[in-house]
Amino acid sequence: MNQPARLTGAQETSLAIAAAVVTANAYYIHPIIGDVADHFGVSHARIGLVPALNQLALAVGIFMLLPLGDRISNRRLTIAFATGQTLSLAIMTLAEGFSLFVLGSTLLGYFTIAPYLLPAYASKRVAPERLGQVTAKLAAGIILGILVARVGAGVVSERYGWRAVYWIATTLMLAVTIALPRLMEGGERSAEGRQSYRDLLLSVFPLVGKHKEVLLSGAIQALNFAQFIAVWLGLALYLTSPQMGYGTDTVGYLAGLAAVSIISTPRLGRWADHVGPRKARTIFAMIQFMGILLLWPLGGSLWGLLIPLIITNLVGPGVDVTGRMTFLALDPAIRTRLTTVYVVIMFIGGGLGSYAGTAAYDAYGWAGTCILLGLCSVTLTALAATARRFGR
């Protein structure tokens, strides 16, 4: 069977931009959630249904739909799910009632599968020695999407209203959906193309039994993602508290620090190609731990907080990239299902981090957030060090 054509540099960049657009959709709500609640006349507790059901639907969608990537071409699935995202965003944009808005957001989460299909698609079209570099480029695109969504949505909403955010999001998704058929070349075939969907879904479990490292990589990234969410939830509560006295715009501007990841992540990926993903991940985890330890002593100053936040944003995405590298170099026929396991575990960590982050701050203030982050980080570092034995 002929191998799929290698991706060009322009195609790699275009896929990274597409990854940014499809990822951003889940993050627009974060800075404008209060405006949306006021518009629909619902309480802040009830508006929490929007991101909560979105994330729950995302986890269900990943488990139910992502394994299809090992049976149906990643190209066809990506186009189909991008279309679903576009329609879901249109529902949110035009919704006059809160229930319809929640439905659109929930469907949006269910169809947000493209960010996890694109690395598997690209991994089949790059030379093995460039896997880390290209995976990192796509990860940088995802980071860019999160950055633009969190910073840009607040600015647009302040000037033009929250609904303008979703008009822009829908337009961008429509453009990406139209471009994907030309951007993504066909030609890949799965070795298990005749396997039934039921058997394909159930086959995830024996695959994990044969490749147990994906569970460890998933657990490490779950802690990494939990830290990411907990630190920003804690900062949002801390900086806007009477103790610090800043506005929510300050939190949004700080979110712009994620821009350093766009520069650092591809370089960290190339370095990981040379030294190996497991060694690189351990080093990234140790650097991140040192940054997290600085959050408490430097937390009394906004300028002081910049130091640990820059450190963690520099290396945090590298933990994810190197985690994916541990299984994306395996048989192409199983990569998407292994990605399913990895991402589902990651979002479980994100859910726990969302709850634990706010609970820790509510109980013990910024000190509680820092203690929680320290415990997560030391556990992550220990697991990363333990995982190095798989590479021997």
TrEMBL record:
Pfam family, any one: MFS_1
Residue ranges of every copy of the Major facilitator superfamily (MFS) profile domain listed in the record: 11-392
Record bears the keyword Membrane: yes
Spans traversing the lipid bilayer: 12-33, 45-65, 101-122, 134-153, 165-184, 214-239, 251-268, 280-299, 339-357, 363-385
CDD domains, sorted: MFS_NepI_like
Superkingdom, natural source: Bacteria
GO molecular function: transmembrane transporter activity
UniProt KW keywords: Membrane, Transmembrane, Transmembrane helix
Transit peptide in keyword set: no
UniProt-recorded name of the protein: MFS transporter
